[in-house]
Design a protein that fits this description.
The chain is α/β, with parallel strands linked by helices. It has a domain of about 160 residues: Rossmann fold. About 35% of the residues lie in helices and about 25% in strands. The strands form two sheets. Strands 6-7-8-3-9-10 form a six-stranded mixed beta sheet, with helices on both faces. A four-stranded antiparallel beta sheet has the order 2-1-4-5, with helices on one face. It is globular, with a radius of gyration of 17 Å. One of its GO terms (biological process) is L-amino acid transport. This is ABC transporter ATP-binding protein. Belongs to the ABC transporter superfamily.
Amino acid sequence: MTRPAADEAILTISGLDSYYGELQVLRQADLSVARAQVVALFGPNGHGKSTLLKAISGINPPRKGSVRFDGVDITGLASDKLVEMGLAYIPEARNIFTEMTVLENLRLGAYNRRARPRVNDNLELVFSLFPRLDERKDQMAATLSGGESRMLAVGRGLMSDAKLLLIDEPSIGLSPLMKKTVFGAINRIKKTTDISIMVVEQEVDYALAVADRIFLLKKGEVVMERGAGEIDKSEIEKAYF
């Protein structure tokens, strides 16, 4: 597979301000994600990481600044339009349809027109990354463990034929084994596909192991940008405080 140039950005965020009501959460945020790379976003709880993902994905549009995705200004576009363009947001919450089977949940992820012709290819990719989902494809999603539910959420994002995955706290509430499984899959996505990933994560070790670049967000501002190999866990944790 020919991989895109690492310095070609699929996502560029410039001067982003975002609010909840009258409370400003993001302040002049600037960052970018290169094609086929993984960016990890760190920072204390409540300092704007999830807000940034929601601003990018159209759930809580920014009041100021711009978001460019795959060469197009997408600032303020609706979420369903962004999914059609290849941007998939995977929230922290257990966002699955419990009354459907695992396979039905996955197929639902391919509802957009661009993804429909690639349903079988993307299903094969998901099952190769998460064999457990293949084993449980006929089970109701309500029967899945927390870790399996996270696998399903990521898998459904892949079924949309995404070019960029925005993943919020993939390891939250999981056992060490499930954390390793989920981040192992993220690493395989990185190594075997051209999909770009932005991941918000508190487990610094796991995220550093798969990331190409890291950004640190504090009080709604990007206060650090570094290559993942240029920084260690202690520097990040120190910057938190």
